[in-house]
Amino acid sequence: MNRTLSQGEREVSGIQGNKKTQRKMAAPLQTLGIGTKLADAAPFGGPIYRIHEGCIVLSRRMHHGPVQILDVYGPGRVFVHPGAPNSAEVRIECRIEVLLARKHARIIHESLLENLDRSHRHVALLSGKTAVQRVATMLMDLALQFGADPVAQGKLLLPLTRPEIGSWLGLRGETVSRIFTQLVGQQTISADTHRGVHIRDWRALTLIADGSD
Questions:
Q1: Contact at 8 Å (CB) between 146 and 156?
Q2: Contact predicate 158/91, CB 8 Å
Q3: H helices of 129-171, where?
Q4: Helix (H) or strand (E) holding 112
Q5: Is residue 28 reached through a cis peptide bond, with omega within 30 degrees of 0 on the bond before it?
Q6: If you compute the radius of gyration of the chain from its CA atoms, what whole number of angstroms results?
Q7: pLDDT (0 to 100) of residue 16
């Protein structure tokens, strides 16, 4: 019998759809080290990357303000640099494949649609969720992107600091830290380092993301 997905699982399940875009590689993978800054898109289009391993964080420096985190790209997703004033940085060592616009047109098209849908869901997250729901949804999102098996309580290495998570979710860094402490106290997650997180109770995290806790 098929299980009906909860709202929280539906919100992050779109990420998994990009797995179908993965195909057998025709070219060797390139490696990008931690801290690598990806160049702005060229006038006629920059490189298009499909991430096989690792993480790229897209951000934008606001006018006379702090850096705003826009998205976190994990394995299976396709990254196209949108150009200035946005910037992109490798946060977890990446193994990437360079896609060709003509050869991989369908894959690129599907991925752009997925990214657009992801952006719409993120706007809904910011406008319709409480602080703790946002953090719970974010943890589910990253766990699914980076393969932190919720059944085996796999370790999730967060690619963002607490203040950066706050920037991404429209919260203060102190609020994010408080919610992490709350989730640890509820034994929903455990944290072995500032960046290392284990999701101990996926169902409880889903209920929190849904607002049903």
A1: yes
A2: no
A3: 131-145, 162-169
A4: helix 105-128
A5: no
A6: 17
A7: 47
Q: Are strands 189-191 and 67-73 parallel, antiparallel or unpaired?
A: unpaired
H/E stretch holding 197: strand 196-199
Pick from 58, 108, 99, 62: nearest CA to 82 = 58
Cβ 97 vs Cβ 50: under 8 Å: yes
Let me know: does 19 contact 147? Beta carbons within 8 Å. Answer: no
* DSSP state letter for 200: S
Contact by Cβ (8 Å): 64, 113: no
Q: Cα–chain-centroid distance for residue 52?
A: 14
DSSP 154: -
pLDDT at 27: 65
Structure tokens given for 158: 């967060």
What is the value of pTM for the model shown?
Answer: 0.79
Q: How far apart are CA 167 and CA 75, in angstroms?
A: 22
50, 96 contact by CB (below 8 A): yes
Residues of the chain with confidence (pLDDT) below 70: 1-27, 41-46, 149-153, 213
Q: Cβ(76)–Cβ(126) under 8 Å?
A: no
Nearest-angstrom CA–CA distance, 173 and 181: 13
- Spatial separation of the C-alpha atoms in residues 20 and 140, rounded to whole Å: 20
Helix (H, G, I), strand (E, B) or coil at 35: coil
- Please give the Cα distance from 159 to 157 (Å, whole number): 6
Is the preceding peptide bond at 150 cis, omega within 30 degrees of 0? no
